[in-house]
Specification:
heterotetramer; A alpha/beta; B alpha+beta; C alpha+beta; B: alpha+beta; 7-stranded mixed sheet; 27 helices; 28 strands; C: alpha+beta; Mth169, Chain: A; 2 helices; 3 strands; elongated; binds adenosine-5'-diphosphate; binds magnesium ion
Chain lengths: ~230, ~750, ~80, ~80
C-alpha cells in the first residue's frame, strides 16, 4: 500500500496525517503537491485539514480548482480510496465528489473540542473496525462544519446508507444538544455512492496514538490499510 | 538631491521632530550624531527607532539586572526570541510580546497581528512554531464594551493562529476595571529548532544581496511603534488608520518557504519586519554585524501607488521578512519563494561602511550611521518614588473582616468569579490540537506538548496576578515567576527558563517607574532562586487611558521540560479512593486575595509571602515524584485558595472528595487563603508510603487531608462541615460564568 | 472595466450570520428590522477580452458562488 | 421595505481574500482579471419607522461596518 497526503498552500494537518500513516501505521507515504498532477502511484489519498488558500473564498473552494484535484477526481472516479478530513471534506463537496456543502457553524464561532460520534455505516473501506452503532470520540476543530443538503439529497443519502458518522451524546442520542455546529441530521461524515470517498469534519489523525489519550481515530487508517491489503 | 526634492517633504525643525514623538534633547542628540540636520525621511526613521517601543529607553538600565545565564540557555535576550536546550540538539525558541493598543482600537485585527508578529519572531530564528499561548486582561464583563473587545480579541487570536496552524495550548484571562479602556493582549509562541540550524539577524559579507520577501508593503501602521509609546487619549481615535490587517495564510506560506530555505546554506541572516518595519530590521542587522547596508527602496514591492521612501521605511505591513543571502545564491532563494507564491525582490546589498544608505531611482535620499543610532539611542534613568496608595492598603486588618456564615455560597461565588471560572469559552475557539502534539490540553495548570523526535515533553504556563503586583509590585513580580514555575512543575516538568512581557503605565511618572523597578527586582530574585533565567521579553509602557494606569502586569511565561512525556500529570482527580495530600504550609493570608475581592469587594492588605525556598523544594519534589510515577494528579493552590483548587480537581472526571482539618483558624481563612508554595496531590494507597518518604526527604510540610469519594465536595474543620456542595452544581457555575456573559 | 458579482445564500438555506445580526439589532433597539441576510460582493477589475460575459458567468458559477447553496447575479459597470 | 447596505474595505486596507481569489483566478486561466476586492451586502427587510434613514445609517456604522477599516453605502429599495 502507498498513501499520499495532498499539500495545498495553507494545509496544516498535512504533517499530522503523514505522521499517523507513516510512523504509526508504518505505511509507505508521500506528500502530493497541489501544483502537480502526478499521484506517484498511491492507492490511498488523504485531503488533510487546514485552511487551503486561507479559506478566503468558501472553505475548500479555491483548492478544488488546483491542478492536483483533477487527478484526485479521476482517481476517485476509478474507485480509488479518498479520505477528506475537515478542510478536505470541504474540498470534496466543492469538487462535487461528495454531495452537499459545509456552511458556517450555527454559533458562528470556531469550535475545537472532542465530540461523540455514532458510526452508522461499518461497510465502507474506512470503517470496518467499528461495530454498527458504536459510539466513538473524535475531536473537531472548524469554523465551517455545518453540513447542508436539501431534503431530497438527504433522503438519498439515508437511502443509500451514505451517512457514516453522526454527532451524538455520550449515550448515542442524535438530538440537537449533541449537534455542535447545526449540521443537517447531525451529519459528521458521509461517503459517496460507491463508498470509496469519505468526507468527515472530525479529525481521526488527532486521536490515533496512545500518548494523546485516545485511539478512536486509529481504526479508520487501519481499516484502509487492511482493506488495501485485501485482508478484509 | 532632485529626487529627494520631488517628494516635497518639509524642512525638518524642532516642531516636526516633536510631532514625530522626539523630545527636544533627543532631536539635539540626533543632530549631534549626524553632525547635521536630518532630512524628513531620516527624522522619521530616527523617531521610530528611538521610540520607547523600539529603543527600551526607560527600561534598558533595569532590564540589565535580570539573570540571563544558565546551563540550558542557548540564546538569551537580544535576538528575535530566546532559545534553550531541551534534549541534546533539540531546542525550544520562544518569546511573548504585547499588542495592547492595537487590540483596543480594533480588537480582531489588533490581536490577530499580535499573534502574527510573535510567530514571525520565532520562525525567523529557524524554529517551527509548535505552541502558542496568550495572556489577556480586560475590564469586567458587566460592560458591553468589554464583551465586544474580548469577543474580537479572542476571535482574532483564533482566526490567525488556527489558520496558520499553530496550536494555542494555554494562556490566562484576568478581569478588572482598570483594564476597561486599556486591555492587555500578550501573545506567546514557542518553536522547535535544532541547535545547528539557528538563524540570526546578521548582515555580513560585503556585496551580499539583501532580499525582501513576503507581503507587499502598504501604508499600514505607519508610525505604529510611536503609537505604542504614547498614552491613550481622545486623539488616538484619529490615529486609527494605523490599524494593520493580518493575513495568516500568507504567514503560513512565509513559514514554509523560510523553513525550506533554511534547510540549505543560501542565507547569512534573516530578520522579520516587526515594529517600525524596514527601518528596525535593516538597522538592527547592520548594527549587530558592524556592517552597513544600501537599500534601493524603489525595488520594494508595494501594494499602493505613489508610496514614498518615508512611507516604505516606516510601514508596518505584516508578513514580511528581510534576509541577507550569499552572493550567487539569489536565484535559489527566489525560486523557493516563487514556489510558495510569495513576493520576493532583491532590494539592496551589504556594505562595510557602517551606514544605512537609502536610494530612490538611483539617487541617495537618506544616509544614516547604523551603529550610533542603534546603540547611542537615548537611555533614561527615570526617577521613581513609592506611591502613597501602598501604605493605605497595608492598613487593612484581616481580623476585622466581617464573618460570613454561608461558606458554600462563598465558594460558589468564587467559582463564578470571572478570574477563576473556566476559560472554556475562550480556548474552545482555539485549535489547541493541530500538529497532534498536545498531551495536556487547556484546563490544567500547565499545557504539555510532546516532541515527536524525543521522549521529552515541554510544559508551559503563563501567569501573573496583577492584584498582587498592585499592592506589592516586588512580591507580585516574584509570585508571577513562582506561580508559573509551580504550574509547570504540577505537570511533572522541571521549570527551565522564562520570557516576560512587562505591561505598565506611563514611565515618566515616578510612581509607575517605582512599580516597574520593584516588580523587576522581585522577578530577578525569583528567577535566581529557581534557576530559571530570562531568555527573552518585551516591555509595554504607557498602558494608561486619560491618566489612569492599569495594574502593573508583568506577564511571565515559564517553559519547562519533562523527561518522559508519558509521566505527565493533569490537575483533575483520576480515581476514587485515593488519598488527598495538601503539601505546603498555610499562613492564612487573605490580603489581595480573590476572596477579599469577590466576597467583600475589597482590594487591600499585602500580597502573600514569597517563599522561594519552599517553592524550590515543592518543584523538586514534583519532578522527582512524577518521574517515579507516584502521583495520580496534582494541582497548585492559587487564586481562591484551597477550596477552589480542590473543587477544580473534581470537575473533569466528576470525582468528589471528603477532607477534614483540625485547625484553630477562621473557616473562611482556612478555605480561601492564598498562601504560596502549596499544592494538592492525589496519591493511590499503593504509593502513599513512598510519597510520604519523598515529602520528608524534601523537607516539605504536608498533611493527609482526605480521600476521593462520591459526587460532592466536602470539607470539615474540627468535625464541623464547612463546605458541602454537589460537584455538578459547582461545575455548572464554574463552566457557565464566562460563557453566560458572552452569549 | 469594473464588474460586480453578487452572491447570496439561497432563500432555502439558513443564514446564521444574518440571524445573529438580526438578534443583536433587536437587542439594541432596532426593532423595526424584520430580517437580515448577508451576501458577498466581488468587485472585479477586468481588461477587455473576448466573450467577457460568458467568462464572468463561468467564473461566478465555478468559483465565486457554490450553486448548491448560493445564487449569484452579475452587474457590468463602466 | 428592502434596504441594502454595502460594506467594503477601504481602498488602502489590505484585502487578503481578494488577493487569494485573484491568484487562483489567474492560475485557472482567467487572466483578464486584474484585481479582486471582496465586500459584503446586508439585505434588510424593515418595517416603516420614524427617521428610518438615520437609523439605518446608525446601524451601518455601529454594527454592520467597522469604520476603522471599512466604508459603507446604503441603497433603499422598493
Ligand atoms: N486565554 C487563554 N487561552 C487559552 N487557554 C487559557 C486562556 N486562559 C486560561 N486558559 C486555560 O485555562 C486553564 C486555567 O487557567 P488559569 O486559571 O490561569 O490557571 P492557573 O490558576 O493554574 O494559572 C489553563 O489550562 C489555561 O491554560
Ligand atoms: Mg495553577
Amino acid at each position: 500500500m502507498k498513501a499520499g497526503v495532498v499539500v495545498f498552500p495553507g494545509s496544516n494537518c498535512d504533517h499530522d496525517c503523514y505522521h499517523v500513516l507513516k510512523h504509526v501505521l508504518e505505511v509507505d507515504t508521500v506528500f502530493l503537491w497541489h501544483k502537480e498532477r502526478d499521484l506517484k502511484g498511491v492507492d490511498f489519498i488523504v485531503l488533510p485539514g487546514g485552511f487551503s488558500y486561507g479559506d478566503y473564498l468558501r472553505c475548500g473552494a479555491i483548492a478544488s480548482h488546483s491542478e492536483i484535484i483533477d487527478s484526485v477526481v479521476e482517481f476517485a472516479e476509478k474507485g480509488g480510496l479518498v479520505l477528506g478530513i475537515c478542510n478536505g471534506f470541504q474540498v470534496l463537496t466543492e469538487t462535487r465528489l461528495l454531495p452537499g456543502a459545509l456552511l458556517r457553524n450555527r454559533d458562528l464561532k470556531f469550535i475545537c473540542k472532542n465530540v461523540n460520534l455514532v458510526v452508522s455505516n461499518v461497510n465502507t473501506p474506512f470503517t470496518r473496525f467499528y461495530t454498527p452503532g458504536e459510539i466513538i470520540k473524535i475531536p473537531i476543530a472548524h469554523m465551517d462544519g455545518n453540513y447542508f443538503i436539501d431534503e431530497k439529497g438527504l433522503n438519498e443519502l439515508i437511502e443509500n446508507e451514505q451517512v457514516v458518522f453522526r454527532y451524538c451524546s455520550e449515550t448515542g442520542e442524535t438530538f440537537d444538544d449533541a449537534n455542535p455546529n447545526g449540521s443537517v441530521d447531525n451529519i459528521a461524515g458521509i461517503v459517496n455512492k460507491k463508498g470509496n470517498v469519505l468526507g468527515m469534519m472530525p479529525h481521526p489523525e488527532r486521536c490515533a496514538e496512545e500518548i494523546l489519550g485516545n485511539m478512536d481515530g486509529f481504526h479508520i487508517f487501519n481499516s484502509v490499510k487492511k482493506y488495501l491489503k485485501g485482508g478484509i | 538631491m532632485s529626487v529627494y526634492n520631488s517628494f516635497n517633504y518639509p524642512d525638518v525643525d524642532e516642531k516636526i521632530a516633536k510631532e514625530m514623538g522626539l523630545k527636544t534633547e533627543e532631536y539635539e542628540l540626533a543632530k549631534k550624531i549626524l553632525g547635521r540636520n536630518p532630512n524628513y525621511i531620516e527624522i522619521g526613521i530616527i523617531s521610530s527607532m528611538w521610540s520607547e517601543h523600539c529603543s527600551y529607553k526607560s527600561s534598558k538600565i533595569h532590564l540589565k539586572k535580570l539573570p540571563t545565564q544558565g546551563k540550558c540557555v542557548v540564546q538569551g535576550p537580544g535576538e528575535n526570541a530566546g532559545i534553550i536546550e531541551i534534549d541534546g540538539d533539540i531546542c525550544a525558541c520562544f518569546k511573548v510580546e504585547s499588542h495592547n493598543h492595537p487590540s483596543y482600537i480594533e480588537p480582531y485585527q489588533g490581536a490577530a497581528t499580535g499573534v502574527g508578529g510573535i510567530l514571525r519572531d520565532v520562525f525567523t530564528m529557524g524554529a517551527r512554531p509548535v505552541a502558542a499561548m496568550n495572556s489577556l486582561r480586560f475590564g469586567t464583563l458587566d460592560n458591553d464594551e468589554t464583551i465586544k473587545i474580548m469577543d474580537g480579541v479572542v476571535a482574532g487570536i483564533a482566526g490567525y493562529g488556527n489558520c496558520f496552524g499553530v496550536p494555542t495550548v494555554g494562556g490566562e484571562v484576568f478581569f478588572d476595571e482598570c483594564y476597561q479602556k486599556n486591555p492587555l493582549v500578550n501573545a506567546f509562541a514557542l518553536g522547535i529548532v535544532k541547535k545547528d540550524k539557528i538563524f540570526l539577524a546578521k548582515a555580513e559579507g560585503v556585496g551580499n544581496p539583501i532580499i525582501y520577501v513576503g507581503a507587499k508593503t502598504g501604508r499600514d501602521g505607519i508610525h505604529g511603534a510611536t503609537m505604542a509609546s504614547e498614552e491613550f487619549s481622545a486623539d488616538s481615535e484619529s490615529k486609527r488608520p494605523n490599524v494593520q490587517i493580518g493575513d495568516p495564510f500568507k504567514e503560513k506560506l512565509l513559514l514554509e518557504a523560510c523553513l525550506e530555505l533554511m534547510k540549505n546554506e543560501y542565507i547569512i541572516g534573516i530578520q522579520d519586519m516587526g515594529a517600525a518595519g524596514l527601518t528596525s530590521s535593516s538597522f538592527e542587522m547592520a548594527s549587530k554585524s558592524g556592517s552597513g547596508v544600501k537599500l534601493y527602496l524603489d525595488k520594494v514591492p508595494v501594494r499602493e501607488k505613489g508610496m514614498t521612501p518615508y512611507e516604505i521605511m516606516l510601514s508596518e505591513s505584516q508578513e514580511r521578512m528581510l534576509m541577507v543571502a550569499k552572493k550567487g545564491f539569489e536565484e535559489k532563494v527566489i525560486e523557493i519563494f516563487k514556489k510558495w507564491d510569495l513576493d520576493v525582490a532583491i532590494i539592496g546589498e551589504v556594505t562595510d561602511d557602517g551606514f544605512v544608505r537609502l536610494f530612490w531611482n538611483g539617487e541617495e535620499v537618506a544616509f544614516l550611521p547604523a551603529d550610533p543610532l542603534s546603540n547611542n539611542a537615548p537611555v533614561y534613568d527615570r526617577p521613581y518614588k513609592k506611591p502613597e496608595y501602598i501604605e493605605d492598603l497595608r492598613s487593612f486588618s484581616p481580623l476585622k473582616l466581617k464573618k460570613i456564615d454561608d461558606l458554600n455560597t462563598c465558594l460558589f461565588n468564587l467559582l463564578n468569579s470571572q478570574n477563576i471560572a473556566s476559560k472554556r469559552w475562550v480556548f474552545e475557539q482555539y485549535d489547541y490540537m493541530v500538529r497532534t502534539n498536545t498531551v495536556v490540553i487547556p484546563g490544567s495548570d500547565a499545557a504539555v506538548i510532546r516532541i515527536k523526535e524525543s521522549r521529552k515533553g515541554i510544559a508551559l504556563s503563563s501567569d501573573c496576578n496583577p492584584r498582587y503586583c498592585y499592592v506589592n509590585p516586588k512580591k507580585g513580580g516574584s509570585l508571577a515567576v513562582v506561580e508559573a514555575a509551580r504550574n509547570v512543575a504540577m505537570s511533572g516538568a522541571k521549570p527551565l527558563a522564562i520570557t516576560n512581557c512587562l505591561n505598565f503605565g506611563n514611565p515618566e511618572k515616578p510612581e509607575i517607574m517605582w512599580q516597574f523597578v520593584e516588580a523587576l527586582e522581585g522577578m530577578k530574585e525569583a528567577c535566581l532562586a529557581l534557576d530559571t533565567p530570562v531568555v527573552s521579553g518585551n516591555v509595554s509602557f504607557y498602558n494608561e487611558t486619560e491618566g489612569k494606569g492599569v495594574y502593573p502586569t508583568p506577564t511571565i511565561v515559564m517553559v519547562g521540560a519533562i523527561d518522559d512525556v508519558k509521566n505527565t500529570l493533569k490537575s483533575s482527580f483520576k480515581s476514587f479512593n485515593s488519598h488527598i495530600i495538601v503539601v505546603g504550609k498555610d499562613k492564612y493570608e487573605i490580603g489581595a486575595s480573590e476572596y477579599l475581592k469577590v466576597c467583600h469587594n475589597l482590594v487591600a492588605g499585602d500580597a502573600p509571602e514569597v517563599e522561594l525556598d519552599a517553592e524550590k523544594k515543592l518543584i523538586d519534589f514534583m519532578v522527582d515524584a512524577s518521574g517515579r510515577k507516584l502521583l495520580n494528579s496534582a494541582h497548585d493552590i492559587s487564586e481562591g485558595g484551597f477550596a477552589v483548587a480542590l473543587a477544580e480537581m473534581t470537575f473533569e472526571n466528576e470525582i468528589g472528595c471528603e477532607v477534614s482539618f483540625n485547625e484553630d483558624v477562621r473557616d473562611d481563612f482556612l478555605l480561601f487563603s492564598e498562601s504560596q508554595a502549596r499544592a494538592i496531590i492525589e496519591v493511590s494507597s499503593l504509593n502513599l508510603e513512598k510519597v510520604e518518604e519523598l515529602l520528608k526527604k524534601y523537607g516539605l510540610f504536608y498533611m493527609i487531608a482526605g480521600k476521593t469519594v462520591g459526587n460532592f465536595i466536602s470539607i470539615r474543620n474540627k468535625g464541623r462541615k464547612i463546605i458541602d456542595v454537589n460537584i455538578l452544581a459547582a461545575k455548572y457555575i464554574y463552566e457557565n460564568a464566562i460563557k453566560g456573559k458572552m452569549q | 472595466m469594473k464588474i460586480k458579482v453578487y452572491v447570496k445564500l439561497k432563500e432555502t438555506v439558513l443564514d446564521p450570520q444574518g440571524e445573529a445580526i438580526l438578534q443583536s439589532a433587536k437587542r439594541n433597539g432596532y426593532d423595526f428590522i424584520d430580517s437580515v441576510r448577508v451576501g458577498k460582493i466581488f468587485e472585479l477589475e477586468v481588461s477587455k477580452t473576448e466573450n467577457l460575459n460568458e467568462k464572468i458567468d463561468e467564473i461566478s458559477k465555478k468559483m465565486l458562488a457554490n450553486p448548491i447553496i448560493e445564487e449569484y447575479s452579475i452587474e457590468v459597470g463602466e
